[in-house]
Design goal:
It is globular and about 55 Å long. By secondary structure, it is an alpha/beta fold. A six-stranded parallel beta sheet has the order 9-8-7-10-11-12. The protein has eleven helices and twelve strands. It binds phosphoric acid mono(formamide)ester. The site of phosphoric acid mono(formamide)ester has 10 residues, from helix 2. Phosphoric acid mono(formamide)ester binds next to helix 2.
Length: 324
C-alpha cells in the first residue's frame, strides 16, 4: 500500500487518500479484510461511487470475476470501463504497464487486473501509482476477491456473523498446486480460525504446499469424511503442457478425487459444497451434486459464491476509493 495522494481528473478540488490496493490476502492486514467482509454482509446498492471511474483490465478469460466487478461498480453508481484486451492496442505491442498508465491518464482511478503472470497486479501497482489496483487473479499466485466471496459464503452458511471460523474443518480438493483460489483461501479461512486440509493426487498436491499453512492429504475420502466445508477445484489444464503430466486419466481422477453422487451421500449432511467455478461437470464434481439436486446430500452453495462475489467487490471498491 502506498500513501501517495493523487488528483482525480474531473473532481476539481477533491483529493483522496491514495491507492489502497488489494494484491494478496497474505499481504493485507486481517483487520482490513474483516472490515471488507463486514461491509459486504451489509451491502445494499447506493451511489457512493458516483463520479468515480473503475476499469476491468483482464488479460485472461473470466466470466464470474469480471462480470461481478462490473455489476458491483454499477451498483455503487461508478463509471465503468471494460477494456477488451482482444481489441486493444496490446495487440500492437503495447505493454501491460503502458495500457494501465493510459487508463490512468484517461481518469480511471481503480482497476481490477487479471493476468496469466503471477505478480502482474503488483507490478502495475508499483509502476502506475495513480491507480488503485485490485488483483482479480494472477497466475498461480492469488485470487483475493474469490477468497473474500468464499469467506462470506461460509460465514452466512454457518451463521458466523463475526467471521470467526474456529472449529470449522475445510477440505480443499483438486489441483492445489496450480490454484490461486486455494492459496488465497488457505490464507484467509485459516486466518479466520478454520482448519484447512488440501487433498488431491501427489502430482497436483506436493507436500511442500504445507508451508502455506494447511494439512496435506492424498486421500480425498479421509479428508472429506468429517469436513464442514468442501471446496472442489478444477484441474487447470491450461497451465500444463500435457494432460498426462497431471493425471493418469480423467476416469481415474474422478474415481479417486471426484465429488461423485455416491461420495456426496457419505458426507456430513450439515456440510456445504463449494466450487469457485468454472466447473468441469462429471470430472471433479457430478452435475447433480453441483446443482444441489440430490435429496439428503450436503447443500451446494456454488451460486451463493457467485452472488456474494458482487457484495464483496462492492465493499472492496468503496474501501479502495474511500474519500479522506
Ligand atoms: N472463479 C473465477 O475466478 O471464475 P472466472 O474465471 O469465471 O472469473
Amino acid at each position: 500500500m502506498t500513501s501517495t495522494s493523487v488528483h482525480r481528473p474531473g473532481a476539481t478540488g477533491t483529493r483522496f487518500s491514495g491507492p489502497r490496493h488489494l494484491i494478496s490476502i497474505r499481504s493485507t492486514p486481517l483487520e482490513r479484510l474483516r472490515h471488507i467482509l463486514a461491509e459486504a454482509r451489509n451491502f445494499t446498492p447506493d451511489q457512493s461511487l458516483r463520479g468515480r471511474t473503475f476499469a476491468t483490465l483482464f488479460f485472461e478469460d473470466s466470466t464470474r470475476t469480471r462480470t461481478s466487478f462490473i455489476v458491483a461498480a454499477q451498483q455503487r453508481s461508478a463509471t465503468v470501463i471494460e477494456l477488451s484486451t482482444a481489441s486493444s492496442s496490446l495487440n500492437k505491442g503495447e505493454t501491460m504497464i503502458d495500457t494501465a498508465a493510459t487508463l490512468a491518464a484517461l481518469g480511471v482511478e481503480a482497476v481490477a487486473v487479471r493476468a496469466r503472470q503471477a505478480g502482474a497486479a503488483a507490478l502495475i501497482a508499483r509502476c502506475v501509482p495513480q491507480l488503485c489496483v485490485i488483483n482479480a487473479g494472477d497466475g498461480r499466485h492469488e485470487h483475493p476477491t474469490q477468497a473474500l466471496a468464499d469467506a462470506l459464503t461460509v460465514a452466512e452458511s454457518f451463521d458466523r456473523p463475526t467471521f470467526d471460523f474456529q472449529n470449522l474443518r475445510v477440505a480443499i480438493v483438486g489441483d492445489i498446486g496450480a490454484s490461486r483460489v486455494a492459496r488465497s483461501n488457505i490464507a484467509l479461512l485459516g486466518s479466520l480460525g478454520a482448519q484447512v486440509t488440501c487433498a488431491g493426487p501427489r502430482t497436483l498436491v506436493p507436500e511442500s504446499l504445507a508451508s502455506l499453512g494447511c494439512k496435506i492429504s492424498w486421500s480425498m475420502d479421509e479428508t472429506i469424511a468429517d469436513a464442514d466445508v468442501i471446496i472442489m477445484l478444477r484441474i487447470q489444464f491450461e497451465r500444463y503442457t500435457t494432460t498426462n503430466s497431471t493425471i493418469s486419466s480423467p476416469r481415474e481422477y474422478r474415481a479417486h478425487f471426484g465429488l461423485t453422487e455416491s461420495r456426496a451421500r457419505q458426507l456430513n449432511p450439515d456440510a456445504i459444497i463449494m466450487h469457485p467455478g468454472p466447473t468441469n461437470r462429471g470430472l471433479e464434481i457430478d452435475p447433480a451434486v453441483a446443482d444441489g439436486a440430490l435429496p439428503g446430500v450436503p447443500r451446494s452453495v456454488i451460486r451463493d459464491q457467485v452472488s456474494n462475489g458482487v457484495r464483496v467487490r462492492a465493499a472492496l471498491l468503496n474501501d479502495c476509493l474511500a474519500e479522506s
